[in-house]
Amino acid sequence: MADLDDGFTRVANELLDAVLASGLTEIQLHIVLAVWRKTYGWNKKMDWISNEEFERMTTKDRTKCSTAKNQLIRMQVLVQKGRSVGMNKNISEWETKFNGFSKSFTESVKESFTESVKGSLPNQSNTKDTIQKTLKTDPPKSPKGEFSEEVLSQAKQVLEYYNEVTGTACRSAEAFAVLLTKRSARDAYTVADLQLVIRWVALTWKRRNGTVAKPANICRVNRFDGYLADATVWEANQVEVDCEAVIDAYNELANGRLAYAEIDDGRVTAIRRIACEFPKTQTANESFVKYFNAFFSRASDYYFGKNERGWHANFDWLMKSETLTLVRRGNHV
Which of 236, 261, 284 corresponds to the end of one domain? Predict the structure, then answer.
């Protein structure tokens, strides 16, 4: 029997209400609860929680836990200091689907997401500016008629996946619905096809102004075949890698000789990209440890010398293909 005498987690009601109203995905919510358990459950504001511990606590894959945690940090629901994370109690700073601090939603969001709210949207003129500013959950009518219920359901599924992978809160699934609809000239793409391209885009496309590619850019009908072909080749070369463990291995060996590295989206992408260049005879994490050992054990003082520009070498420099080739050939001594 659960008993308060065995311990309890004290959470402010306002914070709990904000989380409930924020529109977090299932795995994001699990990460928030895990952070509460490891911080508030021990009267702490912040704590370091490894991906392995998140996996144990939530029963979710550690890679997905790491992705969800980073999404929550970008959304400012969680705050990070060094390797420790905690809740951001300044709810007004959250960048969630529905800001939990807000007591009212826009009319379009009310209609799309809150079944209990009655009424209709005010009439709007059919202008390009109005259409672009209107938030929609269900895809609008296609040029050749309405989307089928099956396509609408699949499009929503893909939209949720896109938001989870990219940490965004897009509300229009129209672009996905178009690709999921069969046309006379081609068969419809599948949900799995779209999810694969979304993963490929999120990890390989360069971000502009800190934003990820929008669904409309991903779902260009005349280019999607090429995107899918590239994503298929990319996935075939992907390997399993614990990115946090790679960062930890580097920091342990650097031991103050080089700048301390913290994990972020750019470094996760770089780690996964260079992991594909290692031989498949050992795990990616073993290859990274071997790579770091080869560098730190033989590198000359030149790479560790500080100057007005800082260290010559650092983690990001080690994640370049040309650096890997340099170390493999022993040209860095």
Answer: 236
